[in-house]
Amino acid sequence: MFFLRKKFVLTSILMGIACAGWAETGSFILDKVSIVGLEGLQGDVVKSRIGFKRGSYITPEDTNQIINNLYGTGFFNSVDLYRKGSNLFVNVKERPIIADFSFSGNKKIKKEDLEKVFTDAGVYVGNIYNPNTMFLIKQSLLSQYSMMGLYGAKIDENIRKLPNNRININLTIKEGKPATIGDINFVGNKNFDDSDLKSGLAFQTPSIWNLWGFLAQFDSYSPNGMEKSVQDVTNYYLDRGFLDFKVTSKQASMSKDREHSYITLGIQEGEVYKVGDISLDGKFIIPKSEVESLIQLKEGEIFSKKKLVDTVESIRTLLGSKGYAFATVNPIPDVDKENRVVSFKFVVDAGKKVYVNRVNFFGNNVTNDYVFRRQLQYYEQSTYDKEAIDKSQRRLDQLPYVGSADMQLVPVEGSDDLVDINYNIKERNANSISGSLGYSDLYGFMIGGRLNMPNVFGTGNTFNINAQLSIPFQQLDISYIDPFFTTSGISQSVSAYVNRSNFAKTDAIAAYQLDTLGARLMYGLPISTFSNVSWGLTFANNTLKQSEGYKSSIVEWFIQQQGGRNVFNEPAITGGWSYNNSNKYMFPTQGGSFNLNGSINIPGISNINSYKVEVGGTYNIAVPNTDLSALSIRAGVQYGGGYGKTKELPFYENFYGGGWGSVRGFLQGSLGPRDINLVDPNNPQPGNSIGGNLNIYNNWDLLFPVPFIKDSSNMRIGAFLDVGNTYITYDLNGVLYPTPPSPTSPSLGNLKYSVGVEFRWASPMGPLAVSFAQPFNVQKGDVTQVFQFSLGQNF
Question: Which residues form the POTRA domain (predicted)?
């Protein structure tokens, strides 16, 4: 928003009665007014602005007033007066009319915001052009750009004259580049080096030696960045006991080309203070000992502002969870400068217990209110509970059809113990019919189609039809999910699917064919705000065959183990537990997720007796001084086996390693032991990976927004370290290649490693991921792949 102060620069041409413009001098009785020089305006309009009518007595002073009146209209570039007898002649030169007005080049300031500024100031088509107004607007815009760190901004005005006193105006805005931080210096620091102080500042200096600077929130100069940096260095000292610290000066100088700025902060450190006596006073409501346990400041320790602030917030949060929404905690300091000790008295006023009156949702034009209400961890008429309200906020933010849910606490008029909680919902366009083109290193190019309705008729229920087609793999999956199948919060998921696979068409997996027809009936129950348990039944009818032109040793062996059977009915019981407190659905920077899942085929009904267990999780750590960067740590173990009459996990249920989600730099699905191609019994050939019944993985990803892109909220770049491998834990000597077979258990010596860089993008066509990796511990037979690309597959 620009606040423009309208000014009128009155250019008075001193005609004076004694000047040559007057044919006669002295006062007179006005008989007639004649307007000379009009092009677009009507004479009556001008006469009405003169201020004098026929018969008026005109003095020399009145003529100055007439000139001022006409200039004040803003219609004229010049005004001359002359008199003949009792007749007054007004000679004017009109300002032109704006026939067309346009501007271009603005990127940092929205078009609609600029249009409003010009319109409010009177610069629009059909209005009279005032150069003074345009000058003020341009100066205001340049000031605004300076506040944004764009000190090299320029605005060029091009005026093209047209017939009939009309003009076309075009403004070309050259915003220029922000003045990046060239260097940051401190004057007066004795206890800490410049490098220590710089590391915690909002301002950062981007360079090839400090790539972190490109990702900082303030890598270029701005007044906001200066204030934030002053606060950062102040907090740095206050957190280390320097109670008297202050910034004595702050300077920013520009390079001659205005592309770099240099920051100098003058500081006065003062002395280090320790914590003295700590006491409590006021209205507690809750046990005093419970409040005391939240105080982080301890007598004799070096004072820390962060601990003080955290203590205040912890006490307020505790009181808020007990219903005291407007509790205050006032830490009153008692500073002993002589002994450099600061004592605190925490004065607590819980106030009155508050209750939730109404919960209102606004802006939800598609989704029913009850869909949002069932996400709440509190109820109307219940005691105010800040912790429950915060958890509810996070649950709403995690809904895929919610763009944002802004919460407002509104006191009820006429009551001091009731509040309304209002949520302003911004919905996402959730329902979609889409086609997709994907690629993975395992299946190659894939085409697909999907009907996705995650909010069916505004109920919050999900209906999906998903089809995928590639040369080695085809799938059709239909599912319906009711997240609140019962009022107690139990969800139900019903799905049916058909898969056809021919892994001879891949470069990584052993050659065999598997056709599957299956169904699932699953239930889930939230057991806490962020965790769920699930259970249910699954059924799969699997038909196993050799691929044409191949004779896989593992297929041959497995069918022999099953007495020649190659069709297997496998009903199973499945269950799991999941936890997710990530702060965002895509590219989270805080919190994480954990999953424990297992399944076991039903004995006596299933043709195969086997089980599988999977444990995995992700933890996200926000990178300091950046809004959207995070270290993501992902790890997991997958294991399966047989029981009863089945000694091993069926190989077609094996886990696969390599590529995205495992160890990048190794071909997707290629890790683990390989089968033997027996199509020529006299010349057996090594085949491809059969995966393993044990798979482990560990991925460390340091992710940042993409530099130099205005909005990179849906993309990240980063660096990674991957560790993992896939194993067969039972003896298949003679069945697998090589002989003796690969290791059957993990060790530091047989794990696969890789490091590299990556790019991720939540593109309109689906998740896109690219990586460049350097693999380590590469053994004979391993298939490496430095560059890996994935489209349409989950990260």
Answer: 28-95, 273-351, 354-428
Residue 458 CB partners (closer than 8 Å, separation 6+)? 366, 367, 368, 371
Two tokens, residue 43:
């004479």
Q: What is the pLDDT of residue 19?
A: 37
Distance, in Å, from the CA atom of 517 to the CA atom of 512, rounded to the nearest integer, reads 17
Could you give phi then psi for residue 731, rounded to 5 degrees? -80, 115
> For residues 523 and 552, is the Cβ–Cβ distance under 8 A?
no
Q: Which residue has the tokens 């920013």?
A: 252
Cα 665 to Cα 224, 448, 704, 726, 782: the distances in Å are: 43, 27, 21, 15, 10
Domains in the chain: boundaries: 28-94, 97-174, 180-268, 274-349, 355-427, 432-791
Question: In this structure, what token pair is assigned to residue 117?
Answer: 């500024």
- Alpha-carbon 56 to chain mean position: 71
pLDDT in tens, 753-771: 999 999 998 777 667 889 9
Taking the alpha carbons at both ends of the chain, their separation in whole angstroms is: 40
CATH architecture of 28-94: Roll (3.10)
The residue that leads in pLDDT, 617 or 59, is 617
Partnered with residue 524 across adjacent β-strands are 491, 534
The 3-class SS string of 166-188 reads EEEEEEEEECCCCCEEEEEEEEC
Annotate 404-460 with three-state secondary structure: EEEEEEEECCCCCCEEEEEEEEEECCCCEEEEEEEEECCCEEEEEEEEEECCHHHCC
CB 666 within 8 A of CB 783: yes
Indicate the average pLDDT of the chain. 85
Domain 432-791 CATH class label: mainly beta
Reference 699, options 669, 727, 657; nearest CA is: 657
Q: Which residues pair with 662 in a beta bridge?
A: none
Q: Which residue has the higher pLDDT, 254 or 237?
A: 237
pTM, 2 dp? 0.56
Rounded alpha-carbon distances, angstroms, from residue 196 to 184, 199, 200, 297: 12, 6, 7, 24
